[in-house]
Amino acid sequence: VVVLEFWATWCAPCIGAMPHLNKLSEKYADRGVQFISITRESEDKAKRFLQKRKIAGWVGIDFDGAMNEAYDVKAIPFTVVIGPNGKILGYPSSQELSEDMLDKALLGKEIMTPKVEKTEVVEPIEQTEKKAPKPIYELSISPSESESTFRRIMPKVFETKGASALQLIQ
Questions:
Q1: What is the model's pLDDT at position 111?
Q2: Of 92, 99, 139, 142, which sits 20 to 30 A from 161 (CA to CA)?
Q3: What is the mean pLDDT of residues 112-135?
Q4: First to last CA, the chain
Q5: Phi then psi for 82, rounded to 5 degrees?
Q6: Which tens digit of pLDDT belongs to each residue from 3-40?
Q7: Cα(17)–Cα(14) distance, rounded to whole angstroms?
Q8: Which residues pair with residue 39 across a beta bridge?
């Protein structure tokens, strides 16, 4: 199992998640889980940072942004869990990555991302002569041939590809 953690030296949430990820990395080091922390910053900058703060596992430099592009990283911190067969099993937030999730990943099982908070269902506004208020969100659903992925890009911002309507509602 590989846990990719995209981060930067200036990213406060990334730095805040490091102690949690370090504990998991150390606990699972002998159990077949490799943590790889990937930054787009220079090797020199990363080395200076690592002299002050510890990152357990491997640290990778994404010189040309190819890893960020390959995993469609939109914001950091960004976590990807890859199973023993090379399949992406989930995109948990770095703070929410748990032992239970890693145990499931070791078995090749998908990791469910945290459930979206339930929201109040609002009945549609009847069209009158008055101008209707702007919607607070927009949802567009279209057919997809890709494998299903669902991930949180940042708080309250989600992206999914290939999910069924039932998965979206849940």
A1: 85
A2: 99
A3: 55
A4: 27
A5: -110, 130
A6: 999 999 999 999 999 999 999 999 999 999 999 999 99
A7: 5
A8: 7, 61
C-alpha dihedral, 28 to 32 to 33 to 37, nearest 10°: 110
Peptide bond connecting 84 to the previous residue in cis, omega within 30 degrees of 0: no
Q: Are 81 and 123 in contact (CB under 8 A)?
A: no
Beta-carbon count within 10 A of 18 CB? 19
Sign of the torsion angle spanned by Cα atoms 89, 138, 73, 49: negative
Contact residues for 13 (Cβ-Cβ < 8 A; gap 6+): 76, 77, 94, 95
Higher pLDDT, 146 or 163: 163
Q: How far is CA 123 from each of CA 47, 129, 138, 160, rounded to the nearest angstrom?
A: 55, 18, 15, 25
Residue 101 three-state SS: helix
Q: Is 160 helix (H, G, I), strand (E, B) or coil?
A: strand
> For position 138, what pLDDT does the model report?
64
Torsion of CA 122, 128, 131, 132, to 10 degrees: 10
Residue type, 108: G
| 69-121 pLDDT per residue, tens | 999 888 899 999 999 999 999 999 899 999 999 999 999 998 865 444 444 55
